[in-house]
Amino acid sequence: IREVESAWKSKDKLIRDSFLKLCREVNPNHDLSLKYFIEGTKQESIDARYGLYDVTEVQAVKKMLDAFINDSSFLDQFIHGESIFKDKDETLVENIKAAWNSDIEGKLRLIVQKAFESRNWYQAEDSQFIKNITLLLKSKNEYYLFNLISQIAESNDLRKNLFSFRNLFSALLEKEQVGEFINQLSQFENGKQVALWTLQQIKFSKHPDSEEIYEGGRNYFLSEYKEAEGNWKKQDNKPSEEERLYTKFQFKLEPEEEKY
User: Among 16, 73, 140, 245, which is most buried by a count of CB atoms within 10 Å?
Assistant: First the structure.
């Protein structure tokens, strides 16, 4: 690979793509291969992204995760491109799972944090890659949700973007955790509102325990549940997507009275 490394500097895209294919064929776990898979991904190269799926050795996986943590443009571009590649991105998550150890666990937690601290945090909000990372973390630690909330508590940027975690909270929350979830979120400004939104989102999700989780929050939000359910009955028993988007947009404009 080193002998033909200069091919990467070619102005001809076909030559650069051929070099990336060579890296995949010869040794995708080599430091140089990983270097150019990362650089190529930042340039939206298909071959570079496919090269990342071939990274399987533990040390190479760790270096790839370090790049997600330390190179914000790499993480942002990877998330940005996932609408095209998300089915294949599951291969990368499976490779991470196969290489699992405590170091990798710590790095994954940092990747989630970096994604939501980024100026492009709104991409992380709907990212299937980030969601799959958190589900992997949950599969190894059933209390990961509360580890995530602790991370949020320690970061100004994460607290500021608290509302953007609803999709993750909805995926991670279990019926036995509802009370503690509400209590822990209530420590944050607007945290109780985010907890309510999360429970409402779960109610209309495909979560196997959606109704039990939703009902677990009723005693904490008696008036809010009554008001929302009354409105839903008028709107065919569920909140419209337009209403959810409007409510979310309204909160972003004015999270508190007199605050914009």
Answer: 16
The amino acid sitting at 112 is: V
Mean pLDDT on 189-213:
94
Q: Mind listing the pLDDT tens digit for each residue in 163-200?
A: 999 999 999 999 999 999 999 999 999 999 999 999 99
Tell whether the torsion through CA atoms of 36, 40, 41 and 42 is positive or negative.
positive
Alpha-carbon torsion (46, 48, 49, 51), positive or negative = positive
Instruction: Collect contacts of 43-49 with beta carbons under 8 A, ≥24 apart.
Output: 44/77, 44/81, 45/16, 45/17, 45/20, 46/17, 47/17, 47/20, 47/21, 48/20, 49/78, 49/81, 49/85, 49/88
Q: Is residue 253 part of a domain?
A: yes
Residue 190 Rama label (left phi>0; alpha psi -120 to 50; beta): left
For residue 191, tell me if it sits in a domain: yes
Specify the pLDDT at position 248: 61
149 or 260, which is more confident: 149
Residue 234 lies in a domain: yes
Domain that holds residue 227: 149-260
Decide if 9 is inside a domain: no
Q: Please, is 96 exposed, middle or buried when counting C-beta atoms within 10 Å of its C-beta (0-12, 13-18, 19+)? A: buried
Residue 155, φ and ψ in degrees, nearest 5: -125, 120
Domain count, the chain: 1
Q: Is the pLDDT of residue 43 over 50?
A: yes
* pLDDT for the residue numbered 260: 46
Tokens of 168: 């993750």
How far apart CA 62 and CA 107 sit, in angstroms, is 8
